[in-house]
C-alpha cells in the first residue's frame, strides 16, 4: 500500500476518481485515505487476523458435525470478524478506487485475496440460513489471511522473493516431472490395470478375506502350477483367489484408470510406500519384471527430477541474497555519506560559533573555561573509543581490558583514563588501610594471570568432560549407589563451575566479564542449573526442568574458541539465523494455514470402524502435528488414504481431496524445505571463504614476525662495531609472502610433474633400498619379481581375478551352507586366494615390507590388500586343519566376510574412479568438523530425551492394564469375523525404540532424523506417562515440541549442511581439475561439445522434378511435423482413456482407433523411407526409434487381433507409450533440460560405480550374516524382502537407501531370530547385533554421501537454469549443429563464407548474431574470429564453431600482437585437458599460423575489406560544409595511411578513427590480396540475404543517403600510441608510394590496430568488478568510425546528437595540435578519472539518477582536451535531426529520459552516456526508452554499432 505517488501528470491534472463519484480531493476520500495509511489501522487489521486465527484454532471438531458449546459461541463471532473485514475492504475501496485505474484496490494481490475472503464469507452466512449446501469449503479460505503478515517483514521477503523468482525454472521442471509421471502412468495403466483386485477369500464364507500376516494380499491364482515365479498363491485347502476385492489401501492405490495411475506414480516418486506397491504387484503378477518399472521410476523421479528443484532453488536463493546484500550496502553507504556531510557541516558551524564566542569580549572567563573543558573531555573520549574499537572477537575483549589493567602499574607517571588508575585514586582517598588494598590488587593480578593460563582452560574443559560423562551414564534401572553418586557429583560440579564463574568475575571485573559472549552464556547456564537444583529440592520431582541440566553440555562448545574452521562455521550459521528464522516463520505460517484448512475439510471426519487414527484433524494441536508430519514426508500417503476414505472413498468423489495432500507435499516438502538447503549451501561457502582468509592472514603474520626477527638479529649483529646497514626500501612482507606462495606452487607442480612422468615412462625403476635387508637391487629373484609386477598385463590379469572372485562371492547360497554350489565355489575361492597371495608376495619381494619410503605397506591400498589376503589364508588354514577352533564357525565366517573388500582393489586401478573416491574422502575430511558438532548436538538431545522419557516406554499388550504388576495372566482377543474369542498371554515389554539409556536414545533419534517411522515414536512419547507405567493416548501433547525442535535442528538443518558440504566439495574438486584456472567450467564444457560435435547429414534428392523430391518436400515441411505432433498427442490421449472394467464396445473402439493411429504412423514411416532412401533414413537415431515403435505397434495390433494369448506379449504394449517420447523433441526448454540430463548422466558413471561398489559390499555382508533368518510375514523379513540371494539383497538395500522403513528391517535382523528350516541350526540363533552398525552405517553412507553426489552432479550441470541466460553455455550449441545442417545437407563440414554469415545471423544470440545485429557489428566479430578459407571460399564446421565459442566466451582473446602467443597457450591447454582427442582435431580448432598468414585467404581479411569498403562507400560523395580547412577524400586518406605518409594534416580527427579496423594476426601482409580484384572480394558470390536488404552496400544507397546527415558514425574511440605508430611506419618503409593497391591498404589498415585487444582484456575485468551498470557490453572497447560526420569539427550537437559532450562552439583557438591526424592524440572524450572527479564535484544531486556508464581506457598518460565541468546544456533542436534508415537496429539507449527526441538541456551524465553509447535513434517506445536486451559480452564495439 504505502503512499501512492502523485499521478504522472503532476499536480495540475486530477487523479482518477474513485468509483466514478469521489474525486481526488473529495474530503471523504481524503479522510479514508488518511485512515488506511496510518499505522494503527494496519496493526488493528493484523490483530484482527490473528484473533480470527485463534478462533478458528479453538474449534474442536466432533464426529457427524456435532459442536461443543465453545464452538457454538465461537461461531457467533464469525459475523463480527466478517463485519470488520468488510469495513476494511470498503474503506480501501473508497480511498483507492475499485479496479479500473493504477493503484486501485483490486490491483494488489493481497487485496484480491481479502476481497475473495470477504465475498465468500458473506455468501456462507447467507447460504447457511437459506440454502442447505455446506459451504465450509469456501469458509476455509479465511485461513489464507495470515499470509498478510509476510508483506511486513523484510527478511521474509528475501526468502519469498527467491521462491517466487525460482517459480519460472521450477515450472519447467514441473512440466518435465509431469511428463515423466504421465509416461509412467500410461505404462502402468497398460501393464497393471486391474491387477490388484484379486485376493484370497475363505472357502467357508466367500465374503471373508483370508489375510497373509496382518493384511490382505493380492493373489495370482490358487493353483501353484499355473502361477508365474514370485507371485502369491492362495492356500487351496482353505481359500480361493477371486476378483472382487476393492484393492489395497481401500482401493485408492491402483492403476485402474489414468487418475489413479498418476496418483500412484506420484506417491512412488515421493518414495513413500513404493515398496508396498512393488510387493503387491509381485504378488499379483509375478516378480520377474516389476523392478524394471519401479527402480527406474525411483531413480529418475526421486533422485533426479526432484533434486532439480533443489538445484534451482539454491541457485535462485544465492542470487537473490547477493542482490539484497548489494542493495543494502549501497543504501548504507549512501546514508553514511549523507550523514557524514551533514554532520561535518554542522560540526564546522558549531566550532565556528565556539570560536566566535571565545573571541567576543563579553564572554566571561568561566564560560571560556567551560568550553575548553568540554573540548578536552571530548578529546579524551575519542581516544578511549579508538582503543575500544580495536577489540575483535568475543574473547579478545576480555583480554584487552585485562592488558589495559596490567599495564597500569608500569605506567604510573602517565595520566591514563583506565579503570585501574581510577581504582588507585579511590584507594588513596580511602586511606583506611592502603596496604590491604594494595595486597588485594596484587592478589587480583595474580588470579587474573592464573585465569588466563592455558592449564586453567584445560582444567575447565576436563571438568566439562567429566560432567558430560556423569550425565551420560544415567540410565533406566540403574543401581542405587550410582544414583547417590550422581546426586553428589551434581552438586560438586555445580560448585566447581560456580567457583570458576566467581573467580573469573573477581579477576576481570564484572564489566569485562560480561563483555565476552562465552562468559554470558556460561553465566546463564549456571544460573539455570542453580535454579533447577533449588527447585527440585523444594518440590520433589522436577517438571522437565531437568532439561536445563542438559544445557550444561553446551559448554562443550567452548572448544570452538580454538578451532578456527569450526568457529567460522558457527559464525556463518549465526549470520544466517535471520534468513533461517524468517524461513521458519514462513514455514510456521504455511503449517498454520494448512492445519486450519485441514480442520475445515477433515475435522471430525476421521472416525472409522477400527477407531480414529492418531493422525487426524480434530483439534488444532493434533492438526498442526499432522501437517508437520506430512511436511517431513513420512507416511503422508497413509494420511491421504484416511482423508479420501473419510470423504466417501474413491467411489463417492473423495479423490478430489487428494489435491490437498499433493499441494502440501509439493509446496512444503519440495519447495520450502529445500530453501533450508539453499541457505545452508550459501553459508557454508561463506564459512569456507572465511577460514581460507584467516589461514592466509596467519601465514602473513608469521612472515612478518619472521622478518622482524631477522631485522632485529641483523641490528644486533650490526651492533658489534660495524655501522648498521640502513635499508632504503625494505622488502614488503606481502611480496615476500607472495614469493613464498609461488615457490610452494612451483614445488607442488614439480611433484605433480614427477608423478605424471612416473606414470608415463612405464616400468618403474627398482627402489634403491634393499628389500627385507636380504635382497639387494641386483638380486635376480628381486629383479624377476619386479619384472613380473610391471608386466603390461599383470594389473589387467589381477582385475579379471578380482571381478571373478566378486562374482563367486555373489553366487554363494547363504541358507544351506553345505550345498554343492557352495562347495564348488569354495575351490574357486582357494584359487583366488592363491593368486592374491602370490601377488602380495611378489610385491613385497619387489618393494620391501615397510621400513623405507615407497615400500609395500606404506600405501593404504596395499595394507587393505594384505589384510584381506591374510584373513582369507587364516580361515583356509583353519578349514583344512579341521582343528577344534575350526568348529567355531562364526570367527571364520567373520574373517571370510572380509573377502568382500576385494572389489575395492579396483579403485586404485581406475584413475577416474579414484578421483571420485578421493572426492568422497575429501568431503569426509570436511564433514568431520560438522560431524563433531552434529554428534555433540545429537548427544545433547539424547541426554534430554533420557531425562524426559527413561523407563516410560513400556506397555502391556492388553491395553487395559497399566503396570507391570497387573500385566499377568491371559486375556481374550476378538478377531473380526470370528464369533469365538481366543486367549492370549499378557506381556509387559518395551517399545522397539526407547530412551532407557543414552546409546538407545541416540539410535532412536538417528532413526527419527532419517524421518522413518518417527510418527510412531512421537505417538509413544506423547502417550508416555510415568516411570514403569503404561501409555495413555495424547497424555502430554507438549512433548511433541521436543520433536519439532529436533526436526528443525537436525533434518531441516544439520543434514542439509552435510549435503551442502558435499556439494561444495564436489564443485571445488571439479574446479581443481581445470588446471591452474586457465579455462573455467563453462568454457570447458563448451570446448568439450565442440571436440565431439560432427555436422548432421540432411538428405535431399538431387532431381528437382522427381516424385521422390515431392515426397521429400512434404515430409520435411513444417505442417507435416505439426500434423504428426497432433497425432502423437491424440494417441497419448487415446492411451489415457483406457480403464479397468471398460465395456466391450469401448474396448473395441479403442482398439480400432489404436489401429488407425498405428496405420497413420506406418504411413509416415513409409513416406519417410521413400523420401530419404533406406540408407539415409536409418542414419538419424530418431528415425530408427520411430521405425522400431511402428514395427512393435503393428505386431502388437496383429497379436491382439489374431492370437489368443498363447504367450505373454505384454512388452509390445510399451511401443504404444514409446511414441510419447517423440514429444520431447519439440519444446525448446524441455530439449535443453533433457540434453543437460544426458550430460549429467555422462558425469555420473563413476559416481554410480562407487555407489554400486558400496551396495555390492553391503549386499554380500548382508547375505553372509543375515541370509539364514526365517521368513515371517509379521516381521520385515518376508518373501519379498530378504537376504536370500544377491539380487534380493540389492533390492533390500535399495529400499533402505530410499528410506522405506529401514528401522523395522534393522530390528528384524538383530540377535536371536528364528532360523530358516534348511539352515541346519538350532532354533533362535540367527541374526546378529551387527545389524545396528550395519544399517546405521549404510544409511549414513548412502543417504548422506552417495545420494548427495547425485545432487552435487545435478547442481553442477543445471546451474544454467539460474544463471544469466545471455551467457553462452554448452546447452546452446546444439542449435548450431542443427542450423548448419540446413546449409550443408550432405555433412561435408564446409559451407561458403557468405552462407556462414547468413547462418550466424539466423542463429539467435548468445550463440549467433541474431537477425537484428547490424552488419558492421557482425563484420567486426567475424574479423576477430578470422577462420581460414579453402580455395572455394569455404569455412570448416569445427573451426567456425570453436571460433564462435572463443569469441563469445573470450577464451584467451588478446590484442592482435599477442594473439599468436595466446593461440599457442590455448593449444597447450587443450593438449593438457584433452590429450587423446586433441591430436586429431587441434589444427581444426586453432588453425596454424601458416594458414592465416601471407597469401592465405581468411574470413577476417574478407570482412575487413568489406567493412572498409562500406565505410568508404558511405562517405565517398558529398561533403558537409564546415569551419575547418578543406579535406581530401577518405580513400586518399586510406592510401596515405597505407604508405605511411602523414602529410595531409588538415583532416579531422575522425579519419584516423575510421581507419582503425581490427584483425588478429601480426604476420606481415603487405602483398596480401594483390591477386584478388576488389570486385571479387566484395561480390565473390551473391551477397548474403541480409546484405541485400542493407541499403548502404550499393552505390545508389550512397546517393540516397547524401541528403541526410551522415549519422553512421559511432562514438569516439581510442587512437594508437606513438610506439605502435613508429613500429607501423617502420614496417612500411620498403613499399613504394605508387604501387599500392586497395588490397595493400586493407592489409595495412588491418595491421594498424592490432593492439586493440590488449585494452579490452585489461579492462574487461575491472569493468565487471566495478559492478557498474552497463547496458550493452563493454563501453571501453575500440569503436570503428564510419566516417559520416567526420568533417564537422565543431561537433555541434545539432548535427549529431550522438557525440561526446564538448563545449559549444568550434575548437578554433586550440592551435594546430587538434588539427593534425597523428594517431598519437586521444579522442576527445573525458578520461574516466576526470569524469569521476567532475561528477563528484559538480553533480552531487544527480549522482544516482542515471546508470553511470564509465569507460575504462588505457593510456592515461596523454594530454586531454579540457572537458566541460558544468552540466553541459546542449540544446538539441529536433528540427535538424534526420536519421538515416538503418536495418532494424534495436535502440540501445540506456537512459529513461526523453533525450532522444531532443527535449531541452541534458546533464553532463547524459551527454557522456550518449557519447559512449553511440547514437540514439528515434525509438518506437514512448520516452525513447527500451529495456536493454541481453547483448553479447565480448563484442568489440557492441554499443556503437548497436546504438
UniProtKB/TrEMBL annotation:
BP GO terms, sorted: calcium-mediated signaling; detection of abiotic stimulus; detection of external stimulus; detection of stimulus involved in sensory perception; epithelial fluid transport; neuron remodeling
Source taxon at top rank: Eukaryota
Compositional bias segments (type: Acidic residues): 396-407
Main localization of the protein described in the UniProt heading: membrane
Residue ranges, compositional bias (Basic and acidic residues): 1583-1593
Residue ranges crossing the lipid bilayer per the database entry: 79-100, 112-131, 170-192, 258-281, 293-313, 455-476, 482-503, 580-602, 657-681, 791-810, 830-851, 863-881, 927-949, 1041-1066, 1111-1136, 1157-1178, 1184-1203, 1243-1266, 1286-1310, 1331-1355
Glycosylation sites: 237
Subcellular localization: Membrane
Binding annotation for Ca(2+): 272, 634, 1012
Domain (EF-hand) ranges: 1371-1406
Record-given protein name: Voltage-dependent calcium channel type A subunit alpha-1
Protein species of origin: Ranatra chinensis
Amino acid at each position: 500500500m504505502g503512499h501512492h505517488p502523485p499521478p504522472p501528470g503532476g499536480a495540475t491534472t486530477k487523479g482518477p476518481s474513485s468509483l466514478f463519484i469521489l474525486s481526488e480531493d473529495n474530503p471523504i476520500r481524503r479522510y479514508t485515505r488518511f485512515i488506511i495509511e496510518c499505522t494503527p489501522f494496519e496493526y488493528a487489521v493484523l490483530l484482527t487476523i490473528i484473533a480470527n486465527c485463534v478462533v478458528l484454532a479453538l474449534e474442536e471438531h466432533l464426529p457427524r458435525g456435532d459442536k461443543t458449546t465453545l464452538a457454538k459461541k465461537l461461531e457467533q463471532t464469525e459475523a463480527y470478524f466478517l463485519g470488520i473485514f468488510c469495513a476494511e475492504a470498503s474503506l480501501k475501496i473508497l480511498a483507492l478506487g475499485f479496479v479500473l485505474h493504477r493503484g486501485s484496490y483490486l490491483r494488489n494481490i493481497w487485496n484480491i485475496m481479502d476481497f475473495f475472503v470477504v465475498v465468500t464469507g458473506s455468501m456462507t452466512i447467507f447460504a447457511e440460513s437459506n440454502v442447505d449446501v455446506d459451504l465450509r469449503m469456501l469458509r476455509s479460505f479465511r485461513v489464507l489471511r495470515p499470509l498478510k503478515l509476510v508483506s511486513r517483514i523484510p527478511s521474509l521477503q528475501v526468502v519469498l522473493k527467491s521462491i517466487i523468482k525460482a517459480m519460472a525454472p521450477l515450472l519447467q521442471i514441473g512440466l518435465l516431472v509431469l511428463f515423466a509421471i504421465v509416461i509412467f502412468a500410461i505404462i502402468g495403466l497398460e501393464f497393471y490395470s486391474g491387477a490388484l483386485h484379486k485376493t484370497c477369500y475363505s472357502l467357508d464364507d466367500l465374503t471373508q478375506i483370508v489375510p497373509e500376516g496382518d493384511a490382505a494380499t493380492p493373489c495370482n491364482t490358487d493353483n501353484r502350477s499355473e502361477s508365474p515365479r514370485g507371485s502369491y498363491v492362495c492356500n487351496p485347502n482353505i481359500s480361493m483367489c477371486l476378483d472382487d476385492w476393492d484393492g489395497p489401501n481401500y482401493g485408492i492405490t491402483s492403476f485402474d484408470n489414468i487418475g489413479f495411475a498418476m496418483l500412484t506414480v506420484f506417491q512412488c516418486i515421493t518414495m513413500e510406500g513404493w515398496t508396498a506397491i512393488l510387493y503387491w504387484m509381485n504378488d499379483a503378477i509375478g516378480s520377474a519384471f516389476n523392478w524394471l518399472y519401479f527402480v527406474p521410476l525411483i531413480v529418475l523421479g526421486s533422485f533426479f527430477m526432484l533434486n532439480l528443484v533443489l538445484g534451482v532453488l539454491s541457485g535462485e536463493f544465492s542470487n537473490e541474497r547477493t542482490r539484497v546484500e548489494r542493495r543494502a550496502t549501497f543504501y548504507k553507504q549512501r546514508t553514511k555519506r549523507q550523514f557524514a556531510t551533514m554532520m561535518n557541516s554542522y560540526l564546522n558551524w558549531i566550532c565556528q560559533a565556539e570560536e566566535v564566542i571565545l573571541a567576543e569580549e563579553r564572554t566571561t572567563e568561566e564560560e571560556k573555561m567551560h568550553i575548553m573543558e568540554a573540548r578536552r573531555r571530548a578529546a579524551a573520549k575519542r581516544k578511549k573509543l579508538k582503543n575500544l574499537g580495536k577489540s575483535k572477537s568475543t574473547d579478545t575483549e576480555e583480554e584487552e581490558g585485562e592488558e589495559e589493567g596490567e599495564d597500569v602499574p608500569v605506567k604510573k607517571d602517565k595520566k591514563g583514563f583506565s579503570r585501574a588508575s581510577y581504582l588507585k585514586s579511590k584507594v588513596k582517598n580511602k586511606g583506611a588501610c592502603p596496604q590491604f588494598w594494595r595486597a588485594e590488587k596484587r592478589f587480583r593480578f595474580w588470579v587474573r594471570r592464573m585465569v588466563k593460563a592455558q592449564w586453567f582452560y584445560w582444567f575447565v574443559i576436563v571438568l566439562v568432560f567429566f560432567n558430560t560423562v556423569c550425565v551420560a551414564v544415567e540410565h533406566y534401572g540403574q543401581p542405587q549407589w550410582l544414583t547417590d553418586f550422581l546426586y553428589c557429583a551434581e552438586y560438586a560440579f555445580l560448585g566447581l563451575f560456580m567457583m570458576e564463574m566467581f573467580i573469573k568475575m573477581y579477576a576481570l571485573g564484572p564489566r569485562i566479564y560480561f563483555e565476552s559472549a562465552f562468559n554470558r552464556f556460561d553465566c546463564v547456564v549456571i544460573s539455570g542449573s542453580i535454579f533447577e537444583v533449588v527447585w527440585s529440592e523444594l518440590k520433589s520431582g522436577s517438571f522437565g526442568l531437568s532439561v536445563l541440566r542438559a544445557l550444561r553440555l553446551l559448554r562443550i562448545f567452548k572448544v570452538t574458541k580454538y578451532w578456527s574452521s569450526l568457529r567460522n562455521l558457527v559464525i556463518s550459521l549465526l549470520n544466517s539465523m535471520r534468513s533461517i528464522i524468517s524461513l521458519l516463520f514462513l514455514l510456521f505460517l504455511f503449517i498454520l494455514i494448512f492445519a486450519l484448512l485441514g480442520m475445515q475439510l477433515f475435522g471430525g471426519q476421521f472416525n472409522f470402524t477400527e477407531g480414529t487414527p492418531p493422525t487426524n484433524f480434530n483439534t488444532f494441536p493434533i492438526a498442526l502435528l499432522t501437517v508437520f508430519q506430512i511436511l517431513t514426508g513420512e507416511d503422508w500417503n497413509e494420511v491421504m488414504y484416511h482423508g479420501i476414505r473419510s470423504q466417501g472413498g474413491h467411489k463417492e468423489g473423495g479423490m478430489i481431496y487428494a489435491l490437498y495432500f499433493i499441494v502440501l507435499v509439493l509446496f512444503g516438502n519440495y519447495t520450502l524445505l529445500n530453501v533450508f538447503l539453499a541457505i545452508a549451501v550459501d553459508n557454508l561457502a561463506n564459512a569456507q571463504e572465511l577460514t581460507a582468509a584467516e589461514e592466509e592472514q596467519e601465514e602473513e603474520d608469521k612472515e612478518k614476525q619472521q622478518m622482524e626477527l631477522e631485522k632485529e638479529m641483523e641490528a644486533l649483529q650490526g651492533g658489534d662495531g660495524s655501522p648498521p646497514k640502513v635499508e632504503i626500501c625494505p622488502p614488503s612482507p606481502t611480496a615476500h609472502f607472495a614469493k613464498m606462495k609461488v615457490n610452494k606452487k612451483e614445488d607442488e607442480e614439480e611433484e605433480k610433474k614427477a608423478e605424471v612422468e612416473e606414470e608415463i615412462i612405464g616400468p618403474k625403476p627398482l627402489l634403491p633400498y634393499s628389500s627385507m635387508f636380504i635382497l639387494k637391487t641386483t638380486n635376480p629373484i628381486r629383479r624377476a619379481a619386479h619384472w613380473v609386477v610391471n608386466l603390461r598385463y599383470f594389473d589387467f590379469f589381477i582385475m579379471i581375478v578380482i571381478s571373478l572372485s566378486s562374482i563367486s562371492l555373489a553366487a554363494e547360497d547363504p541358507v544351506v551352507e553345505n550345498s554343492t554350489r557352495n562347495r564348488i565355489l569354495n575351490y574357486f575361492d582357494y584359487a583366488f586366494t592363491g593368486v592374491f597371495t602370490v601377488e602380495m608376495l611378489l610385491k613385497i619381494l619387489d618393494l620391501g615390507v615397510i621400513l623405507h619410503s615407497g615400500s609395500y605397506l606404506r600405501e593404504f591400498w596395499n595394507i587393505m590388500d594384505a589384510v584381506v589376503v591374510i584373513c582369507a589364508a587364516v580361515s583356509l588354514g583353519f578349514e583344512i586343519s579341521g582343528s577344534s577352533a575350526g568348529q567355531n564357525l562364526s570367527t571364520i565366517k567373520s574373517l571370510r566376510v572380509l573377502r568382500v573388500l576385494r572389489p575395492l582393489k579396483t579403485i586404485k586401478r581406475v584413475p577416474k574412479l579414484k578421483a571420485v573416491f578421493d572426492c568422497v574422502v575429501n568431503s569426509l575430511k570436511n564433514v568431520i568438523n560438522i560431524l563433531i558438532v552434529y554428534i555433540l548436538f545429537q548427544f545433547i538431545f539424547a541426554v534430554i530425551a533420557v531425562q524426559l522419557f527413561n523407563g516410560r516406554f513400556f506397555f502391556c499388550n492388553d491395553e487395559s492394564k497399566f503396570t507391570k504388576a497387573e500385566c499377568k495372566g491371559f486375556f481374550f482377543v476378538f478377531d473380526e469375523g470370528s464369533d469365538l474369542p481366543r486367549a492370549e498371554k499378557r506381556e509387559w515389554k518395551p517399545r522397539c525404540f526407547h530412551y532407557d539409556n543414552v546409546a538407545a536414545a541416540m539410535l532412536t533419534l538417528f532413526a527419527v532424523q532419517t524421518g522413518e517411522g518417527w510418527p510412531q515414536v512421537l505417538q509413544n512419547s506423547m502417550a508416555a506417562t510415568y516411570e514403569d507405567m503404561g501409555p495413555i493416548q495424547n497424555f502430554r501433547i507438549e512433548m511433541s515440541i521436543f520433536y519439532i525442535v529436533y526436526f528443525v535442528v537436525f533434518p531441516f538443518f544439520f543434514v542439509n549442511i552435510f549435503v551442502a558440504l558435499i556439494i561444495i566439495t564436489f564443485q571445488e574438486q571439479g574446479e581443481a581439475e581445470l588446471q591452474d584456472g586457465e579455462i573455467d567450467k563453462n568454457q570447458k564444457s563448451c570446448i568439450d561439445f565442440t571436440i565431439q560435435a560432427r555436422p548432421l547429414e540432411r538428405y535431399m534428392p538431387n532431381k528437382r522434378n522427381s516424385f521422390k523430391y515431392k515426397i521429400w518436400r512434404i515430409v520435411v515441411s513444417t505442417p507435416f511435423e505439426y500434423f504428426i505432433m497432433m497425432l502423437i498427442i491424440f494417441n497419448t490421449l487415446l492411451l489415457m482413456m483406457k480403464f479397468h472394467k471398460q465395456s466391450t464396445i469401448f474396448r473395441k473402439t479403442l482398439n480400432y482407433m489404436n489401429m488407425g493411429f498405428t496405420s497413420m504412423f506406418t504411413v509416415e514411416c513409409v513416406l519417410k523411407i521413400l523420401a530419404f532412401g533406406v540408407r539415409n533414413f536409418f542414419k538419424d537415431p530418431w528415425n530408427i526409434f520411430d521405425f522400431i515403435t511402428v514395427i512393435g505397434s503393428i505386431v502388437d495390433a496383429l497379436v491382439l487381433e489374431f492370437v489368443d494369448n498363447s504367450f505373454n506379449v505384454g512388452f509390445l504394449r510399451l511401443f504404444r507409450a514409446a511414441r510419447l517420447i517423440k514429444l520431447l523433441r519439440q519444446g525448446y526448454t524441455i530439449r535443453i533440460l533433457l540434453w543437460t540430463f544426458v550430460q549429467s548422466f555422462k558425469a555420473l558413471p563413476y559416481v554410480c560405480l562407487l555407489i554400486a561398489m558400496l551396495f555390492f559390499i553391503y549386499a554380500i555382508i548382508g547375505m553372509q550374516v543375515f541370509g539364514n533368518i526365517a521368513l515371517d510375514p509379521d516381521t520385515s523379513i518376508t518373501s519379498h524382502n530378504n537376504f536370500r540371494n544377491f539380487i534380493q539383497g540389492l533390492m533390500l538395500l535399495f529400499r533402505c537407501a530410499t528410506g522405506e522403513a529401514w528401522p523395522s528391517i534393522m530390528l528384524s535382523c538383530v540377535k536371536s531370530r528364528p532360523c530358516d528350516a534348511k539352515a541346519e541350526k538350532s532354533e533362535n540363533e540367527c541374526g546378529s547385533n551387527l545389524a545396528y552398525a550395519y544399517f546405521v552405517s549404510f544409511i549414513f553412507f548412502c543417504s548422506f554421501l552417495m545420494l548427495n553426489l547425485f545432487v552435487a552432479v545435478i547442481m553442477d550441470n543445471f546451474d544454467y537454469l539460474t544463471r544469466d541466460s545471455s551467457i553462452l553455455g554448452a546447452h546452446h550449441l546444439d542449435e548450431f549443429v542443427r542450423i548448419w545442417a540446413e546449409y550443408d545437407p550432405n555433412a561435408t563440414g564446409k559451407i561458403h563464407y557468405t552462407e556462414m554469415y547468413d547462418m550466424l545471423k539466423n542463429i539467435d544470440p548468445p550463440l549467433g548474431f541474431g537477425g537484428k545485429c547490424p552488419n558492421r557489428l557482425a563484420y567486426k566479430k567475424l574479423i576477430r574470429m578470422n577462420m581460414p578459407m579453402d580455395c572455394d571460399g569455404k569455412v570448416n564446421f569445427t573451426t567456425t564453431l570453436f571460433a564462435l565459442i572463443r569469441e563469445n566466451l573470450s577464451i584467451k582473446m588478446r590484442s592482435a600482437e599477442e594473439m599468436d602467443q595466446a593461440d599457442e597457450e590455448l593449444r597447450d591447454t587443450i593438449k593438457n585437458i584433452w590429450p587423446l582427442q586433441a591430436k586429431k582435431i587441434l589444427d581444426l580448432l586453432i588453425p596454424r599460423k601458416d594458414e592465416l598468414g601471407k597469401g592465405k585467404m581468411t574470413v577476417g581479411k574478407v570482412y575487413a575489406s568489406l567493412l572498409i569498403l562500406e565505410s568508404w562507400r558511405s562517405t565517398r560523395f558529398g561533403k558537409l560544409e564546415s569551419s575547418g580547412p578543406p579535406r581530401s577524400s577518405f580513400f586518399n586518406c586510406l592510401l596515405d595511411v597505407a604508405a605511411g605518409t602523414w602529410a595531409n594534416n588538415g583532416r579531422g580527427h575522425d579519419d584516423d578513427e575510421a581507419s582503425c579496423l581490427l584483425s588478429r594476426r601480426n604476420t606481415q601482409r603487405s602483398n596480401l590480396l594483390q591477386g584478388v580484384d576488389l570486385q571479387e572480394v566484395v561480390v565473390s558470390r551473391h551477397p548474403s540475404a541480409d546484405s541485400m536488404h542493407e541499403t548502404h552496400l550499393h552505390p545508389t544507397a550512397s546517393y540516397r543517403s547524401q541528403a541526410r546527415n551522415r549519422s553512421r558514425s559511432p562514438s569516439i574511440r581510442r587512437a594508437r600510441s606513438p610506439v605502435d605508430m613508429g613500429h607501423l611506419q617502420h614496417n612500411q618503409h620498403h613499399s613504394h608510394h605508387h604501387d599500392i593497391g586497395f588490397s595493400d591498404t586493407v592489409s595495412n589498415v588491418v595491421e594498424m590496430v592490432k593492439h586493440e585487444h590488449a585494452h579490452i582484456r585489461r579492462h574487461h575485468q575491472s569493468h565487471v568488478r566495478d559492478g557498474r551498470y552497463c547496458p550493452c557490453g563493454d563501453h571501453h572497447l575500440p569503436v570503428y568510425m564510419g566516417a559520416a560526420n567526420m568533417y564537422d569539427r565543431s561537433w555541434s550537437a545539432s548535427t549529431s546528437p550522438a557525440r561526446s559532450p564538448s563545449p559549444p562552439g568550434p575548437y578554433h583557438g586550440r592551435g594546430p595540435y587538434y588539427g593534425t591526424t597523428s594517431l598519437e592524440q586521444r579522442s576527445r572524450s573525458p578520461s574516466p578519472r576526470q569524469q569521476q572527479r567532475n561528477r563528484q564535484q559538480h553533480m552531487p544531486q544527480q549522482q544516482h539518477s542515471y546508470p553511470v556508464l564509465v569507460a575504462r581506457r588505457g593510456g592515461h598518460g596523454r594530454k586531454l582536451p579540457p572537458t566541460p565541468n558544468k552540466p553541459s546544456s546542449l540544446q538539441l533542436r529536433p528540427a535538424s535531426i534526420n536519421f538515416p534508415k538503418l536495418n532494424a537496429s534495436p535502440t540501445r539507449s540506456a537512459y529513461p529520459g526523453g533525450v532522444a527526441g531532443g527535449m531541452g538541456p541534458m546533464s553532463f551524465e547524459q551527454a557522456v552516456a550518449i557519447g559512449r553509447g553511440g547514437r540514439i535513434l528515434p525509438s518506437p517506445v514512448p520516452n525513447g526508452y527500451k529495456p536493454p536486451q541481453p547483448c553479447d559480452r565480448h563484442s568489440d564495439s557492441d554499443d556503437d554499432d548497436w546504438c
